[in-house]
Amino acid sequence: MAFNLIGKNFTPPDIYSKVTGKAKYAEDFKVEGMVFCRLLTSTIPHARVSNINLNEALSTPGVLGVLTADEVTATDIMDNPILTNHPKFIGQPILAVAAESEQIAQDAIEKISFEIEALPFTVDPLESLFPGGPNARMEGNVANPGIEPEEVKWQVSDFVAAGESHLPMGSPSREWSYGDLDSAFASSVYVLEESFVTQGLSHNSMEPRTALAYWDGDKCILHASSQSQSFPHPGVASYIGIAPENLVFIAEFCGGGFGSKGGAYPYVAIPALMSKKINRPVMMRISRNEEALIGSARPGFQGRARLGFDQNGKMLAADLYIVQDNGPTNGFNDWLSAGDALSLVYTPNAMRFRGVPVLTNTPHRGPQRGPGQNQIANAIEPMIDKAARELNIDPLAIRKINAPNNQSKYGGSQTSVTSAYLSEALDQGAEMFNWNERRQRSGQRNGTKVTGIGIGTAYHSAGSNGFDGLLRIDTDGILHIHTGVGNLGTYSHTATSRVAAEVLGYSWDRCVVERGDSSKGLPWNLGQFGSNTSFTMTRTNYAAAQDAVIKIKQIAALRLGGSEEDYELHNERVQHSNDPNVSLSFAEVAQIAIEEGGSYSGLTYPDEINPMTKRAVDHLAGSGLIGVGRDNLARSGSVAALAAGFIEIELDLETGDWEIKDYVGIADCGTVLHPLGLSHQVKGGAVMGIGLAGYERHIYDPQNGLPAHLGLCHSKLPTYLDVPSEMRWGAVALEDPENPVGAKGIGEPVQGCASAALLCAISDALGGHLFNRTPVVKDMIINFTAGQNQSYGPLQISSA
Amino acid sequence: MITQPKTSRRNFIKGVIASGAAASSSAYMFGVSGCSNQQVSPGGVERLISLNVNGMTRNVDVLPNETLAMTLRYKLGLTGTKLGCDRGECGACTVLVDGVNLYACSLLTHTARNKQIITIEGLESSDGMLHPVQQAMIDELGPQCGFCTPGQIMSAVALLSNNPNPTRDEVRRALSGNLCRCGAYDHYINAVMLAAERGV
Lengths: 800, 200
Description:
The structure holds two protein chains of two kinds.
Chain A: H1 15-20, E1 35-41, E2 47-53, H2 55-58, E3 63-67, E4 93-99, H3 102-109, E5 113-118, H4 125-129, E6 142-144, E7 147-150, H5 156-162, E8 174-178, H6 181-187, E9 190-198, E10 201-202, E11 211-216, E12 219-223, H7 233-240, E13 247-250, H8 269-278, E14 282-284, H9 288-294, E15 297-298, E16 301-309, E17 315-325, H10 334-346, E18 350-358, H11 373-391, H12 395-402, E19 409-410, E20 415-416, H13 422-433, H14 435-439, E21 445-446, E22 449-461, E23 468-473, E24 479-482, H15 492-495, H16 498-504, E25 511-514, H17 533-560, E26 567-570, E27 573-576, E28 583-585, H18 586-596, H19 611-620, E29 625-630, E30 640-652, E31 658-668, H20 675-694, H21 712-715, E32 728-731, H22 749-765, H23 778-785
Parallel strand pairs in A: 1-14, 12-13, 17-18, 24-25, 31-32
Antiparallel strand pairs in A: 1-4, 2-5, 3-4, 6-7, 8-18, 9-16, 10-15, 11-12, 11-14, 16-17, 19-20, 21-22, 22-30, 23-24, 23-29, 26-27, 27-28, 30-31
Chain B: E1 7-8, H1 9-16, H2 20-30, E2 47-53, E3 56-62, H3 68-75, E4 94-97, E5 100-103, E6 116-118, H4 132-139, H5 149-162, H6 168-174, H7 185-198
Parallel strand pairs in B: 2-6
Antiparallel strand pairs in B: 2-3, 4-5, 4-6
Helix pairs in contact in B: 4-7
């Protein structure tokens, strides 16, 4: 397809504010009479709080009120609560105190006395699964969305059978399979079996989830740190206990979320409820430590994989077991996504997946960039290299022979894909990276240093459908594209809005993207997460633009004669196909739309659109021509975003340090919407992947359940000095057939392919040694090269 | 079920204070620099001082324990200076003090008296023209979420004032005190190199 706007760089409308300091994040707002609240949080991992005495705190000058767990909206028992008297992880908020200043609020918290009963806790899933092991909650030790909480204890014999080096595999919570697994393993010429550990991880967004709330009558105005705009809106309103139409949700900028601020989260309700109680605007600033604990975390895995290959490296059989560190709530479905990802990326002829999500007294687990897919990429990719080494197959070739294509199906239900071009991504990357020549450098020594070469591949389902598009042409002819997707920093709020301008033939300088504040009239859209925006939002904006096209032509026919089929759009005018002089400008069309009313100006709209979109149209009605529609375009499969990373490192055998000499990331993301934005995702994803593979830690002391990773320096985010100063990228750019402009998402697998490539390169530099865990930190490398025992057991979590 | 004698929170904290994590956690809590709207503090009383911020003299009441980040953000309304950690880890609050890039969260405001303080808001010229680093950040799509961007820009401005033609490696070393969770490092370096090429 040829486009005027799609695929071209543009200046995002929000970037000027970002570089001048004018961008206002939640903590940057100040309103008259604003006061502050602070949180009393749990200092022990599982406890019951009672007999709270607030008298001294409430009598402190400047203290305005206390909000307790008894006063907040009740949530489902397995959901993350707003406040609780039954904390299940260190840092969980128990109550909040509001005062004229933060200092007064904090001092008042110290005057609160209460009884606290320590309850059994665990920070290790295997400990909890062992007979007699502690449960993280009274309700049991296993739960997940769709799995009611229950107690699961494995048999001692399960642990004995596994031995020290392998994951025990007792009764799973979920299991699926396809193909004849036994036969596939029997046919394999090479079978490997490895157990592995992937770390949990705080999201560590740069902006803590500070929130400001105040009320105007029944309406609550909430400034929040949210990567999504419309999607969390109903959930946030529910937390506050109000109807969605009474919530003004402002999230124009978000200082990073990575999944942790994608949907509604409970803590934004605290300043809102406090504000209602004390009748003052309330700012709740969240500290770095608090963010590390309430900001959710990626689940860690303890896993075991058995893989069978034929002599060509084709994966015939895969048997995967995942024990997921689920945190104390419902958590997230990383473990299930991991099974799907293995099935799709390597397309084994037969596969079985088993797993169990085990509750622990650690932070709530939510989605983090490539949830499940990226952990499993890190676990499996080095095993693929091991198989290649054993079978004497090139690492590129073994990935290509197993790569999915457009006909591939995956998972227990054998889901199809809309498109899959991983093999093409591998080819493109190999050429850019000069794979064949680089491969010759594998193992080359330079003094104490040795070269390692690695490839990584990863996947994420990257698109959805069924959401609404909304636009307005005003009487000046300006196109306003209303988007409720959010602002995570990808600029896709605008890249996808440009589809509407493309369809209507607009010059981009006559378009405005309306976003960031629900009172502007924003449609119901999926959140900005799950790599879905490029696919999902191009479809919604296309739907709105198509509706506008029809209405514009109808108006032309109405006023200029003929039928709508007689007209076409050209240069922001609608004109008769046979006589360009018979035409109306879009500004004139907008004026006529107002005069005609009905659906033209938004006085009526399709029943099928979401109530939020209906409210948005009501808000805009009568102000121009309204284009609105639900995305009813066909979608028959999972939208497969795939990525391949190529990396060369130089590893110092004496220090355990490694330096990345080159990185190439290739995205299978369909049509490229915004080249600079895509470059940002590929490279930024790689930075986060380097952290996931080589640096970042999530440490809990098993004796007391205390975290040891709360600082950014303790968690060890990658800095400028930990990553290459220059990285390279490319895109396959083959259109996805189920998107009107051929686009699909990419944000998540570009992390997993980089982290997996780095792990493979480290393994390659060490002659094929598998650590079978992330992160691989320097002392692990030194211990290996020195022939020393590692400081952790094979399945131990919190190891680095 | 483990049963332990019920204890008050104070006693509990006394009991676990010896543990590193608990001590660290509570130290942050007790040390919170919440001077916003503060009238009285255990740390002393506010004093009216003059600060030179972005070329203007600003008179402001400042507590003895108040950080420059707090003064800038909450008393002078200069919210472009961000707080990502408030403890010298992330660099989001970087400002120039006499031309040196410093963490405003880790500098007491009283120590910045008689010094020239420049924040992100002070880079734009009076006619609205952006600083070359700001313009290059737009042209190279430097930021992602943008939260760390003001700090990154201030470090880059400090670098280029001392070293107008840096190498990529010099740029990354000069900016290495500024974290970016989005991983926008490559684009930020591109922007600084472009600004240097255009001339600051």
